[in-house]
Amino acid sequence: MSADSLSVTLHATLTQRHKKYGRGIWLAAGLGVFLILVGLQAGSFAQSSFDMLQMLIKKITSQDLTQQQDIHWYIFSELRAPRMVMAICVGALLAMSGCAMQGLVRNPLADPGLIGISAGAAAAAATTLALVNHFPELEKAGQYLVAGSAFVGALLAVWIVLLVAKTPMGTAISSLILAGVAVNALAGTHIGAISYMANDDALRQITYWTMGSLGGIDWHKVSFVGALSVPAIGLFLHLRKSLNMLALGENEAQCMGLAVAKHKRLTLWLVAFSVALATALCGIIGFVGLVVPHIARTLFGADHQYLMPACGVLGGVLMLVADIISRTLFPPLEIPIGIVTSAVGAPFFLYLLAKGKAEHV
Amino acid sequence: MFEMKDIFLNYREKSILQNISLSLSSGDFVTVIGENGCGKSTLLRCVAGLHQQTSGSIMFQQRNLEQWSNKALAKERAFVAQNNQVHFAFLTENLLKLARSEQVETDKQSTLLICELAEKLSISHLFGRDVRTLSGGERQRVFIAKALLQLLPSNKPNNHQLAYQNKLLLLDEPTSALDFRFQKAMMDLVQEFCQKGLAVVCVSHDMNLVLPYASQVVLLAQGRCLAKGEAKDVITTENLSDCFGVTPKLIPQIGSVPYITH
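Predict the joint structure of the above. Result:
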């Protein structure tokens, strides 16, 4: 075959693949919209689509709602809608962080938690929860103090890890992972000590926080996370080419024109920021960052050009599914969402390990 | 176009390279040979800008190598390492496309350039294959194609007389995984690109294969340059026994460098 005809065939194949993956991502987004509609209706207080539509029309046309509709509207607009939006934001941030982390350390078994982000957040949140419980005067600002300290704790953990892993040649990935293990262990010890000393109330709150939850999410928190998520997601998409280059190794990436040290730093801080943001407001939601990139890689291949946006969309979808399950499995009880994601993620992780062992990865 | 002067490189108080100087012009093919661990790959990485020398200067296209930005340098020099690893399931064509990512051109243009080179290196049948599943030799050819694609300017076709003028290709054991047929084919191909202006620095243990192509040979021993020059002057029994610690037999060949054997 001549180069010209080969080029026509290859171009057609690449265009077809581009369209196929594009359609796939849009399809996943469509599934997300469907899940939002399901999620708005589902829960211990079920609402039919007809009721919702009726209320919406009345609200748009400024008609008065009945007393029962008022309650329904409140549940619909103030409880369920914000947590759905939060689920999408947090899911996208966690999944894209996982994708970036796996690309950076060139290991599909990596997770943002590997470098101690979640553990740092949990240690700081546990300390604040214990303090808030001990000093009742802090209770009013309690949830903001917990979120703020979790955010700072997460970034502090990453800063320590990066400081330890810093070498004259840049950040050493192996040292980064080992330092992450140490920080995780230290944070675990700290949480253990706090839990041992805490009273029953504080202990319960710490346990609940570390399980992750979308309960208590309001529009104020959603607008805060949403406003910060948009630039973070934009930056993740900007990193696609550099992550593709890094998949070939750092030296290869540098020879192909990538400022490796700069991009590594940017990726790590972006992952740290995104996970810290999600964790600060929703607690620890495990395995989304590990499982979603794997699912996306199976469906869309390893090219970050498609993988990264696919992770964003699928992360949102997975979190919506987990949120619906958490609210509908044992109504009126709500299971913390972190338990749902871990219940799905942990067996999947074991499966990956077994598969990796079989393939000698 | 490339000038390396009095390079010293120390690592953890150990001297790896001592007083190495090297000069290249467009179209040169320089072969670096020497015993295991003598600093050949380190020298290549120094030339690539991956290692910072302790002292000495490296000028590339009349500019200090340290002053080059990674992006600009990537269009002018490419490096093919000995062990090329891909950690995710990248397809061959995706990998080659990545080499064109810094060029301003349409998808059709880049696809044509990729196909031309793929045909030349007999790798077009590997399109659609996961690079991790390729054999060592196939992968080596894919990475050499990637390096050549990286250097090719977007405004010049592959067959242009001066397509690779002032570009530098660094090869670390490029034929180590290739079979008998492709070893020769690869060297002929590299020579063809040298005629288009490409300067090549090639580290190899297969002296009989690479020496006939070399315009200059550098013999390294314990981080120092033992001899440098044309192959006929450097490849002597005395030099080789000084370098490798064994005395080889040199079988003279008409119009070529001698054949080296034990």
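The first strand of chain B starts at residue 2 and ends at 11.
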